[in-house]
Structures are given as C-alpha cells and as structure tokens.
Amino acid sequence: MNKRISLVFVPVGIGVNVIGGLLASSLKLPVFLDTIGTILSAAILGPWWGALTGGLTNVIMALQNPMDMWFAIVNIAVGLIIGFISVKYGFQKWLVVLIAGLIISVVAPIIGTTIATYLYGGLTGGGLDIFVGGLMKAGADVFTAAFIPRIASNLVDKLLSVFVVMFVIMALPKTLKGCAAGPEEA
Predict the structure, then answer these.
(1) Nearest 5 degrees, angle CA 185-CA 157-CA 100?
(2) Mean pLDDT, to the nearest integer, of 158-166?
C-alpha cells in the first residue's frame, strides 16, 4: 500500500476513534468504542501505522480530557497486536478475527486497569465507574474492582470492534485491503 493511502487512513482512523470515544463517554456507555479506527488502520496498514493511529487518537482526545493521554498505551498496544496478526494471517477470516479480538479483550483491560488503578484510584469518570465503585464498596481491592468491569466491557467492545472492521475490510476493493488481505494476497 502506498504511503499516500496510509497517510489518508491514519486520520480517518483517528476520526473514527475520536467520534466513537466521545459518543461512548458522552452517553456514559459501559464500552469504549475508541479503538475501531486503530483496528482498521492496523489491519490494513500494519502494526506501526496502527500504533501511530492509536497513539495520536489519545493525544487528540487528551485536548478534551487530559486523562485520556495515559491510555494511549492501550490504543498503541491494540494497534501493534492487530497489525502483527493482520500481517501474519490477514483480517478476513472469522477465526483469526475472533482470536485477535479475544487477545486485545484481555491485553487492553490489563493495561487500562493498571493505569486507572495507579493514576486514578480505579475511577476514571466513565460509564464503568458505577460498577467499579460497587465492587469496591463490596470489599474488592481497587485493582480487582477496576479490572472485572473492564474485562467484561472489553469483551463486548473489542469483539464488536474487530468484527465491524472485518466487515468493512471485506467490503473494500482488493487494492485497499493491504495487510488485511492476508499473506497470500499481499
């Protein structure tokens, strides 16, 4: 894929992430919706462009909410993981997409919970805080109380995101599929 197309995909991915993230936070949804563009960029362009998309998303979102800057690590990790999987296996097969979604559904909350716990005491002002607070009130330690809702939320959020991206990629012309076409097509 040529560099010009890559330079177009990155801002599109960032825009999708920002819109999804703002929608989820404004409506206090128990999902994040802020990695769909990262997943799309990573699946098509590879790990480094995906990581760039994810990192820049959080830089931009931090202009509205400075707390988002720290969570760039999550978005970068998602870009790297999806990008490497896409380069190796493509991103159009159900099983590959399911496994990729499950991997990031675990990795993202491990990183995100660590950040939320150590920087913010487990509460970040999002839709999950009611669950985190409830678990803390019930006696769970901060990390556990912050992790359980995040893992549940990420399973829904990331699996939804990877399958949305897979369907988008399947609808793209072959010339725009990039890494997602799979190693035999590249």
Answers:
(1) 35
(2) 97
Write out the H or E segment, with its range, that includes residue 30: none
Place of tokens 């380069």: 87
Structure tokens at 140: 């769970």
Q: What is the dihedral of CA 26, 97, 154, 36, to 10 degrees?
A: -20
Residues 6+ apart with CB under 8 A from 45: 1, 6, 9, 10, 83, 178, 179
Using alpha carbons, list the distances in angstroms from residue 91 to 65, 115, 117: 32, 29, 33
> What is the three-class DSSP state of 90?
coil
DSSP 67: G
- Average pLDDT for 52-77: 94
Q: Which amino acid is at 100?
A: A
Angle at 16 between CA 102 and CA 131, to 5 degrees: 55
Q: What is the pTM of this model?
A: 0.92
Work out the pLDDT band at 186, boundaries 50, 70, 90.
very low
Torsion, Cα 32 61 13 151, to 10 degrees, reads -20
